[in-house]
Amino acid sequence: MSTLSTFRNAARWSNATRWSVAAAAGLLVAATLPAATVHASTAPPAGAAHVPDRYLRQHLDWRPCDSGALECAAMAVPRDWRNPGAGPDLTVAVSRHRATGPGARKGVLMMAAGGPGASGLTRPTGLAEGAPKLAATYDIVGFDQRGVGSSTRVVCSDQPTVDSFFDSGDLRDRSSPAIRQTFARARAFVRDCERNSGDLLPYITTDQAVHDMDLYRALLGVDRISYYGPSYATFLGAYYATEFPGRVERMVLDSNVDFSGSWQSFMTGQPLGFQRRFEQDFLPWLAQNDAVYHQGRTPAEAKASYERLRRALHEHPLELEGTSVTANSLDVAATDAMYNTGRFGGFASALGVLEHPDTAAPADRKALARRLQHAMGADFFADFFAVTCADTPWNRDSGHWVRESAEATRAYPLAGARELTFASICASWPRSKAPHIEVTGKGLPPVLMLNSVHDPATHYEGALRAHRALPTSRLVTVTGGGDHGQYLNDNACVDGLVEGYLLDDRIPAGDTSCATA
């Protein structure tokens, strides 16, 4: 497995400075059952489970969200779509940004968040602000996936317990005591999940979530939706398209998880992406800016400087404004910075603060301490594992993971050092009965896929496999860079292709490329 911080940022749009996430919407009220008539076709696709009328006839009581122009509501969904009459209902929080233009509408553009574990409820606001032409033409809708945010949430361990995964020891440590502690911590976390959310865990899967999405489509009164999804939301979109191909009108998948295989195969491949981005993009940039940051005039010198600082933090963790900064903290900050070139400068400045904290400005010390305080939020951590451990099978042999993670730590230390920590959780997870979903692309219209060649979180090799799994897809490769998230990332070529497709149904005849902006 690999880094989880990878998905904390992938969960966002593409550029953290552009897409600030508003506070979770309030004014969510329980869905009322039954109520309004649904005007769209609600007959399930062939092979799908029957949807009880009480869900299809519920009324979404739209109220203003806390965030600007959005409306929010709550949708009741079956706990288990494979057996919808069993167990209490769950709640999925949904949102809507109504089309603003006076002209003809294209319908509904549904979007989802990354992660898994990130909130998607307020995402329509960011898309509407960044793409006013889409906002004029589409009702842009979002939701908090089951297990997340304002929806029925999965709960595992508290924040100090999650912090202990990162601030106890050094994740590069391959000693027997460190390995035993890693497995013990993973088993304790899984026990927390079973104690706090045990009856919910089997149903926090991508397969269950896509059925929630299709119910949402029906309650919006449309036969088909268009879809935009970045990072994990590409996995969600591919599963939706596989299980409900007749409901898809247009689909854009941005920065692709390899949904053709398993979470295990994708995440064991991920450390390569982070190490490549670090060594081939960040270190050369840092060396070119040595006059500003003083980390070395060559990439090799800059890497040596990073490792010296890491060793110092390993030997003597730094107490920075009440936050303990360890070698693991440095790696987490580094992986976070790899998501977008615009973050390079902030991380380079952080290196200087950590090297010379006594001479750093108090405001800089405090700001960095806040950023490093928690490597991962407890809520995100819980949902991330609930989905990734249950969607697809994992190897449960501890010896396999000790060997596999040793090689990942050696070859790709920036993110590979965390492989054992996270794989051990899924190796201990309750066995899942989630159905195997084979993504084939059968029955789909053209799908537009986007990926950069050095994307750290969704490595290009995995995106190519995902592309091959969707025969109707066209892959737009962003060359010369490695940002995670391509649409609305200041690249006119990419934005033109996406909006030409979503607005005018123009799609490249074949695969194409755009240079990085």
Topology (SSEs and partners):
Layout: H1 5-10, H2 53-56, E1 63-64, E2 71-77, E3 90-97, E4 107-111, H3 123-130, H4 132-137, E5 138-143, H5 159-167, H6 176-197, H7 206-219, E6 225-231, H8 232-243, E7 248-256, H9 263-288, H10 290-293, H11 299-315, E8 318-320, E9 323-325, H12 327-337, H13 344-355, H14 362-372, H15 378-391, H16 398-411, H17 413-416, H18 419-428, E10 447-452, H19 460-469, E11 473-479, H20 492-504, E12 512-515
Parallel strand pairs: 4-5, 4-6, 6-7, 7-10, 10-11, 11-12
Antiparallel strand pairs: 1-2, 2-3, 3-5, 8-9
Helix pairs in contact: 6-18, 7-8, 9-11, 11-12, 16-18
Helix content: 40-55%
Return the average pLDDT rounded to an integer.
Answer: 91
Low-pLDDT ranges: 1-47
Q: SS-based structural class?
A: alpha/beta
Q: In angstroms, what separates the terminal alpha carbons?
A: 31 Å
How many strands appear in the DSSP assignment?
Answer: 12
What's the story with the biggest beta sheet? Answer: 10 strands, mixed
Radius of gyration: 22 Å
Based on Cα principal axes, name the global outline.
Answer: globular
Strand content: 5-15%
The number of helices is 20
Strand order of the largest sheet: 1-2-3-5-4-6-7-10-11-12
Describe the protein in words:
The structure is a single chain. The protein has 517 residues and is an alpha/beta fold. The protein is built from 20 helices and twelve strands. The protein has helices at residues 5-10, 53-56, 123-130, 132-137, 159-167, 176-197, 206-219, 232-243, 263-288, 290-293, 299-315, 327-337, 344-355, 362-372, 378-391, 398-411, 413-416, 419-428, 460-469, 492-504, and strands at residues 63-64, 71-77, 90-97, 107-111, 138-143, 225-231, 248-256, 318-320, 323-325, 447-452, 473-479, 512-515. The two termini are 31 Å apart.
